[in-house]
From TrEMBL:
Name by which UniProt lists this protein: DUF72 domain-containing protein
């Protein structure tokens, strides 16, 4: 299973491009008709009511999946420490049913690798697919990779000019975030770059989720569709 989509969908910058002529209330269904998956970003900034998740699930096709970004109360305020209550509050909001995909835990750039902290947090996670996106070079270590492997948690392979791109596949699925190779959240991916990512996905030979986060100038949905054309997507076999 290769699922490819975008990080979020509510971008005014897409109004005159990808969403041209589409009412804002239909933006989600318009995008979801063309890609396999979308990351929910708003969940990072504040807890979303369960009714929102149910509404989003109802607006998307059968077989569609949402990845959900974990709350910054857990990752940035608690910094993974003593986060039991914040983690429980976040998990209780999720109401996507069968459309629930991985939960991504995006760590702050200042958070260094601490094996004991990461071990305790991974042990507290509920069953399901989880992915870790560290943004500090200290995570480039076998001790980190081994912890993820033990808990079957995916390391997020991030492509960006401002934080490390650590390519490691640590679970029975892979998770990729493409933030813009040259300019963060802006630059579009070239044909050659998309070909290279398609090659890597093929070589990993496992379920893979890919999200384009180069959203600011509207490249993300077009890049997602271009990568889909280079890859194998069950919804389009």
């Amino acid at each position: 299973m290769i699922s490819i989509g975008t990080s979020g969908w509510r971008y005014p910058e897409w109004r005159d491009g990808f969403y041209r002529g589409v009412p804002q209330r239909l933006w989600l269904s318009h995008l979801a008709a063309q890609v396999d998956t979308i990351e929910v970003n708003s969940s990072f900034y504040r807890l979303q009511p369960p009714a929102y998740y149910r509404k989003w699930a109802a607006e998307t096709p059968t077989g569609f999946t949402f990845a959900v970004k974990g709350s910054k109360l857990v990752t940035h305020h608690k910094r993974l420490r003593h986060a039991e209550d914040a983690l429980k509050a976040f998990l209780e909001t999720l109401a996507l049913g069968p459309k629930q995909g991985p939960i991504i835990w995006q760590l702050p750039p200042s958070l260094r690798f601490d094996a004991a902290v990461v071990q305790d947090f991974l042990a507290a996670l509920p069953p399901g697919r989880h992915a870790f996106e560290p943004r500090h070079e200290s995570f480039r270590t076998d001790a980190y990779f081994d912890l993820l492997h033990t808990h079957n948690v995916a390391h997020v392979i991030s492509d960006a000019p401002t934080f490390p791109c650590i390519e490691a596949v640590t679970a029975d699925f892979a998770y990729v975030r493409l933030h813009g190779h040259d300019e963060l959240y802006i630059s579009s991916y070239s044909d050659e770059q998309l070909d290279e990512w398609a090659r890597k996905i093929h070589e990993w030979d496992r379920d893979t989720y890919v999200y384009f986060d180069n959203t600011m100038h509207g490249a993300a949905p077009y890049n997602a569709l271009d990568l889909m054309a280079r890859s194998t997507s069950p919804a389009r076999r």
